[in-house]
Amino acid sequence: MTAESARSPRKLTLSHVARSSLLVAAFFALDKGLGFIRQIIIGRQFGVSAELDAFNAANNLPDLLFALISGGALALALIPVLSEVLERQGRPPMWELFSRIGNWAFLLTGGLALVIAVLAGPIVRSELGIAPGFTPELQTLVVSLMRLNLIATLIFSLSGLVMAGLQSNQHFLLPAMAPVFYDLGQILGALVLAPIDGIAIGPLRLPAAGLGVHGLVLGVILGAFLHLAIQIPGLLRYRFRWFPRLGLRDPGLRQVTLLLGPRILTIGAFNLIFIVQDNLASRLGVGAVTALAFGWLIMQVPETIIGTALGTALLPTLSEHAARGDDQAFETSLARAARVLLAFSLPITVVLAVVIRPLVQAAFGFDSSGTDLVAWSTRAYLLGLTGHSLLEVAARAFYARKDARTPLLASLLSTAVFIAVGIGLFRTLGAPGIGLANSLAFTVEALVLLALLGRRFPVVLQQGSVLVRMLIGSALAGAAAWLIMSWITTPLPGALLASVVGGGIGLIFLLPELRLLRCL
Known about the structure:
Layout: H1 3-46, H2 50-69, H3 72-89, H4 91-118, H5 120-125, H6 136-168, H7 173-193, E1 199-201, E2 204-206, H8 213-229, H9 232-237, H10 251-281, H11 288-324, H12 327-364, H13 368-382, H14 385-400, H15 405-429, H16 431-456, H17 464-487, H18 491-509, H19 511-518
Antiparallel strand pairs: 1-2
Helix pairs in contact: 1-7, 1-11, 2-4, 2-6, 2-10, 2-11, 3-4, 3-6, 3-10, 4-6, 6-8, 7-8, 10-15, 10-16, 11-12, 11-13, 11-14, 11-16, 12-13, 12-14, 12-17, 12-18, 12-19, 13-16, 14-16, 15-16, 17-18
């Protein structure tokens, strides 16, 4: 075997990761694009208002319930077990195990949803609850919206499991499409159900149900139904059969339960940050909760496209290296991914922070004070873009090595950091102070995990030259964007031109990582 032929398998594997990253990024970009359109529609209808604060606050606990029981936590534990049963025993036993797990998940979700619905008042109004700083009228609205949201959570308890079942059968198209249909349902709710007056689109005028913020929640329920419905053809294709059984002694069920524990706690710690975030923001006055929701959404667009996409595509490769005991290949893949994420995230952070205010104003149409609040909250979140992106890969590196305990401990640390810093900053800096605490907490979590990985894989931490080069490039890109914004007095054209010029300068410094990305 020649040296070149010996190298070719690795080159093919890495190029596959690059292609998978781009494919996943495309679906994520479509989802984020539709989500952004949805938020533009909502923002223009409700502004930075008390009603929108209530809507955003009401989402947190139902979202946490879904994430813990039927979302990412269960899927991560379920997919490996279902895949093993499918491989060894065939599809009917796999669907029987799937049914048992789904029956338990639905019963648990329904039971907890009922408890939350009954106790919604104290959960919202208590000092340690969702929104203790809201007025009594606004707290009553949050209670009503939260109870409605739980209907969507029940639907998602099924839909999230269906995604895991289809992915276990190596079917990814319909699960990838499901979030897009969820966005479409929410957009319909925002366009038709929520507005008091009809919506004019050119010569056409859409009718409106006039339901206000309740229409937004009904759009969430519709989106959840579409999220499930689009995946039903996949179940039919793979001859799904439901079994009305629980089977506590089933070994597959016990295996999923053992894998699930640490992951549930990790996701719980992550979501606890956002519950505490709204608790603090509710004490700051009208608009704080909404500003943080919009700022998080904006930061998540680049983070999802570069960080989550690369982490998702890289996990199977890292798992394969770990299973073979090939530490050198594991280290090389991880170090290259960290280098790419570090290089991409820094100039995006700086340029977007410079141009964000005119973009927020043009997109959402807020008044001056609302625009400023959202812009500064977004800048606070953007300071954590690099940390969030690196965390996507660092955490998956531990999961690839079947270590769920270390990410759990790091997540608990980041939650403690957020609570301590958030309490210290929110009174003086307002909503941006809470966003800053979020950025610091997740950056600390990423650095801790990378430092622990670096003890065994030191190349991962050897990013000094990349960091210096990108800091210089980001500073030049940000300075160019700022100068253009200063010279061009019309805000939106200036922001768009500044984004292009600043991005172009950052791209020059990114050329080595662009070449690396092609063969990652």
